[in-house]
Design a protein that fits this description.
Blueprint: E1 10-11, E2 20-30, E3 36-46, E4 56-59, E5 64-70, E6 73-74, E7 80-82, E8 86-89, E9 95-104, E10 114-118, E11 121-125, E12 144-154, E13 160-163, E14 166-172, E15 177-189, E16 195-198, E17 201-208, E18 214-221, H1 230-247, E19 255-261, E20 268-269, E21 274-278, H2 291-306, E22 314-316, H3 322-340, H4 343-363, E23 374-375, H5 384-417, E24 420-422, H6 424-435, H7 443-447, E25 453-461, E26 466-474, E27 489-497, E28 507-508, E29 519-523, E30 527-533, E31 539-543, E32 552-554, H8 558-567, H9 571-595, H10 603-614, H11 620-627, H12 632-636, H13 644-661, H14 663-675, H15 683-702, H16 705-717, H17 721-732, H18 737-750, H19 754-766, H20 772-779, H21 790-803, H22 805-808, H23 814-826, H24 831-838, H25 849-863, H26 870-880
Parallel strand pairs: 2-12, 18-19, 19-21, 22-24, 25-32
Antiparallel strand pairs: 1-23, 2-3, 3-9, 4-8, 5-6, 5-9, 7-8, 10-11, 11-16, 12-15, 13-16, 14-15, 17-18, 20-21, 25-26, 26-30, 27-29, 27-31, 28-30
This protein binds (3S)-3,7-diaminoheptanoic acid and zinc ion (ZN).
The site of zinc ion has 4 residues, from helix 3.
Length: 892
């Protein structure tokens, strides 16, 4: 089923244009779960420059070839060769029609790549290389063709037949089957091919584009889910309107279909005109979905829609260019969400996510540039680096250009690259040409792995009024890349009066007048100096406003962090400095726990949180973000040797201290917010719920029966899943009898809703309780657990391995054993999902010796399996490879 050979390495430097182009594709599917017959007619043409006699090599995996015809005639055996992954045609003519008939087995396809069956319905997933599991084809994104697709299936089994593009005809046959033909007028790469067939219900709406094209919208779900699509439809229409007003991009087909499926390897897929979605990014009602789920739906619905221009109309030349579509489209969905809700809050949440997922990746054995230069399996490169860091690079450039020039640059990109498969160079060139700025220097960001670190030093001369700022950059070594060039790093900063915190006016050399506005410096050398003149009073440099580049700014003192957290006018920097201040305290305390030194409580943080609680009414969502301490996984990133137990103890004791010291204001705030609980799905209501959950969490951490009773009450009476789940998460992390009662109650109420049951598994996977590995192992035997469903697997095992550090790193090593066994069990059926789980072992080298040995043994055992998939093998081999530097960590 899977590809178990160590796949060959593919290199960007070895890219060659296709030797043959496919201009038209006519596909006919006779759909049946056991065996589906696919007839493909390809209009093929030899590309200019391809020597006569060069063979045509088509990709194909797991296909049974039943017929092969060239221009209507059966091909003689000596004219072609069939290998396990290819079909080679010897000496084809310059232009011809190739017809293949193949058989595939969708019901037996457990990889969820290619054509598969879920809940009796048919779905496809072709990105990145799934189309070769459907028919023989040059499966590479720079071969773009026009598709016409006819689906035939039993009418009772599959009353609904969907494919890309517009519906053109349908009809009935005498044998109980029916058929439908779809035509997609836009040339596309085969990874955007899709079909959906089965017994589904449409929830319909319409959208009129600004040029007056009426688009029929439909969200296709299984019977019983029709009442959970309102929010997704609302987001889709909002995204369509936003892309018109913000980027001038209109939708380009008569229909836009979304189909939701519960067995899906990732979030969703942007197939042209027929997006296929994981149900978790479509289905929501306030009783079943949390506010985080709602935000996820807004993100993913808009993201896939925005791909229609950034990804589909303009696609990638090769898979190294993945961030061309993914980074840019994440940037677009982040901007959309910022415009729908609060820009400041969006920025905080995006940076939190980047630091939680991408920074660790960039510092570990799987670090790679936003544009990698080699891979074995491209599936392993749908990463936080390609997506989130890629979005930061676009944001950095967009901020540098400003809104007008960025829009002019994007207009140029859409005009000059439409209907083409292009590179990141093409993108920067078009963007720069439209904006009138040379963006070539930014290409280096795309080629450089590792998070740049910037340090600053300052001098102030009160005699001359000159303030001097020295900045230095350093990029840590990453696998295969010991030395890095200096990157162009835009830095937003302002000066504040060191006494009062008020903004100070100053003049940089070259500026005509003093100003206190935010400056944008470009640090593009290893070290650089700036002189500010007319600085009347000692300033503090407020550097890193808005997170103007994906870097770390190191070496700010605790005093500086607290000062900026209180005084800077930029809410992002205030949030950021408080987070970093809390990190400093927590890391110092964890060190004290580890070494047995005396532990000193820090009154400063409690005072800062108390001050924030006073301002809670003005912006509850911001306050909720600001008072939430950095996660243990993020703190671990800053420790040379990770001590998960010391970190957990430090963080929990700080939370308890805050809960006790601020019990009265927290309780008053909580009761106020609780009185205003409503099921509304809007930014204000979400902000109140987030803050109520944060306050309750501190109260429970503070201890006592009263707080537990409050959590139980919220669990029983909250009108939304956000409230219920917030309370259940707190109860599940205790060993009190209320825990079991609440979990049992939740299970009884929601056992028939798979997405809610996922939450029940996830909460238990994340609970940092003694014996966590055994608890999770027991849950793998629960009748509702199945490793075959990626959502369920990620809910239990993914949350355990990625969000429960004390549980996963249990000293017994049983957490590692459980993860390794799960990977070994899942890998043969679904290599993509198994390989992704394996990345949880990524920090093994930075663990203390005993755990390091256990983790290394688990990895070595997996690596020693001869039948390991190429996907998992690539990830595990990289994790076991020698580390790029002796130290590699810059702190402590
Ligand atoms: N483009 C898809 C991801 C496909 C992953 C394939 N292994 C979803 C997205 O980024 O929009
Ligand atoms: Zn995407």
């Amino acid at each position: 089923m899977s590809d178990t050979s160590a796949a060959p390495v593919i290199r960007l430097s070895e890219y060659r244009p296709p030797e043959f182009l496919v201009e038209t594709v006519t596909l006919a599917f006779a759909l049946a779960p056991e065996t589906t017959t696919v007839t493909a007619r390809l209009g093929v043409r030899r590309a200019a420059g391809t020597p006569a006699g060069a063979p045509l090599v088509l990709d194909g995996e797991g296909l049974a070839l039943r017929a092969l015809r060239l221009d209507g005639a059966d091909l003689a055996p000596e004219r072609y060769a069939l290998h396990s992954h290819h079909l080679t045609l010897r000496d084809p003519p310059d232009q011809f029609t190739l017809e293949t008939t193949t058989e595939i087995h969708p019901a037996a396809n457990t990889t969820l790549s290619g054509l598969y069956v879920s809940g009796g319905n048919f779905y496809t997933q072709c990105e990145a290389e799934g189309f070769r599991r459907i028919t023989f084809f040059p499966d590479r994104p720079d071969v773009m063709a026009r598709y016409r697709v006819t689906l035939t299936a039993d009418r009772a089994m599959a009353p609904v037949l969907l494919a890309n593009g517009n519906p053109v005809a349908h009809g009935e046959n005498d044998d109980g089957t029916h058929w439908a033909t779809w035509d997609d007028p836009h040339p596309k790469p085969c990874y955007l091919f899709a079909l959906v067939a089965g017994d589904l219900i449409a929830v319909r709406d319409r959208f009129v584009t600004r040029s007056g094209r009426e688009v029929q919208l439909a969200i296709w779900v299984r019977r019983g889910d029709e009442d959970k699509t309102d929010y997704a439809m609302h987001c889709l229409k909002a995204a369509m309107a936003w892309d018109e007003s913000r980027f001038g991009r209109e939708y380009d087909l008569d229909v836009f279909n979304i189909a939701a499926v519960s067995d899906f390897n990732m979030g969703a897929m942007e197939n042209k005109g027929l997006n296929i979605f994981n149900t978790r990014y479509v289905l929501a009602r306030p009783e079943t979905a949390t506010d985080a789920d709602y935000r996820g739906i807004e993100t993913v619905i808009s993201h896939e829609y925005f791909h229609n221009w950034t990804g589909n109309r303009i696609t990638c030349r090769d898979w190294f260019q993945l961030s061309l579509k993914e980074g840019l489209t994440v940037f677009r969905d982040q901007e959309f969400s910022a415009d729908q809700g609060s820009r400041g809050l969006q920025r905080i949440q995006d940076v939190r996510r980047l630091r939680a997922a991408q920074f660790p990746e960039d510092a570990g054995p799987l670090a790679h540039p936003v544009r990698p230069d080699s891979y074995h399996k491209i599936d392993n490169f749908y990463t936080a680096t390609v997506y989130q860091k890629g979005a930061e690079l676009v944001r950095m450039i967009a901020s540098l250009l400003g809104p007008q020039r960025f829009r002019a640059g994007m207009d140029r990109y859409f005009a000059s690259c439409d209907n083409r498969a292009v590179t990141i160079e093409d993108f920067l060139e078009a963007l720069g040409a439209g904006a009138g700025v040379d963006l070539t220097p930014f290409l280096a960001w795309y080629a450089t792995a590792g998070t740049p670190e910037v340090t600053l030093a300052e001098d102030y001369d009160s005699e001359t009024g000159i303030f001097t700022l020295h900045l230095r950059q350093h990029i840590p070594p990453t696998p295969g890349a010991p030395n890095k060039p200096a990157l162009p790093i835009p830095l937003a900063l302002g000066l504040l009066d060191a006494e009062t915190g008020a903004p100070i006016a100053a003049k940089l050399a070259g500026e005509t007048a003093s100003s206190s506005a935010t400056r944008h410096l470009l640090l593009d050398q290893p070290a650089q100096t700036w002189h500010f003149e007319d600085v009347g009073r000692r300033p503090v440099a407020a550097i890193g406003r808005g997170f103007s580049a994906p870097i770390k700014i190191l070496g700010l003192s605790r005093e500086r962090l607290r000062f900026l957290a209180t005084h800077d006018p930029d809410p992002f920097l205030r949030w950021d400095c408080l987070q970093r201040y809390a990190s400093e305290i927590l890391l110092a305390d964890a060190d004290a726990v580890r070494t047995g030194a005396a532990r000193a409580a820090d009154a400063g943080l409690i005072a800062a949180i108390a001050a924030l609680l006073d301002q809670a009414a003005a912006d509850p969502a911001f306050v909720a973000e600001a008072i939430t301490l950095p996660a243990e996984t993020q703190l671990a990133e800053e420790m040379a040797e990770i001590d998960v137990d010391a970190l957990h103890m430090a963080r929990e004791s700080l939370r308890a201290a805050i809960g006790r010291a601020l019990a009265a204001p927290l309780r008053a705030l909580y009761e106020n917010l609780r009185a205003a609980f409503s099921p509304a799905i809007d930014g204000a209501a979400m902000g109140r719920r987030a803050l109520a959950n944060a306050a309750l969490s501190y109260l429970v951490a503070g201890g006592g029966d009263e707080a537990i009773a409050m959590a139980v009450l919220q669990f029983q009476t909250a009108p939304t899943m956000t409230g219920r789940l917030g309370a259940l998460t707190l109860l599940a992390a205790t060993e009190r009898p209320e825990r079991e009662a609440a979990l049992a109650d939740f299970y009884a109420r929601w056992r028939h809703d798979p997405l809610v049951l996922d939450k029940w598994f996830a909460i238990q996977g994340m609970a940092p309780l003694p014996g966590a590995p055994a608890r999770v192992r027991a849950l793998t035997r629960h009748p509702d657990f199945t490793a075959a469903n990626p959502n369920r697997l990620r809910a239990l095992i993914g949350s355990f391995a990625q969000a429960n550090p004390v549980g996963f790193h249990d000293a017994s090593g049983d957490g590692y054993a459980l993860l390794a066994e799960t990977i070994a069990a899942v890998d043969p059926a679904n290599p993509q999902v198994a390989a992704r789980l394996a990345s949880a072992f990524g920090m093994w080298r930075r663990m203390p010796p005993a755990r390091r040995t256990l983790m290394a043994a688990a990895l070595a055992e997996l690596a020693g399996r001869p039948d390991l998939s190429a996907n998992s093998r690539e990830v595990i081999t990289k994790m076991l490879a020698p580390s790029p530097s002796a130290g590699g960590v810059t702190r402590h």
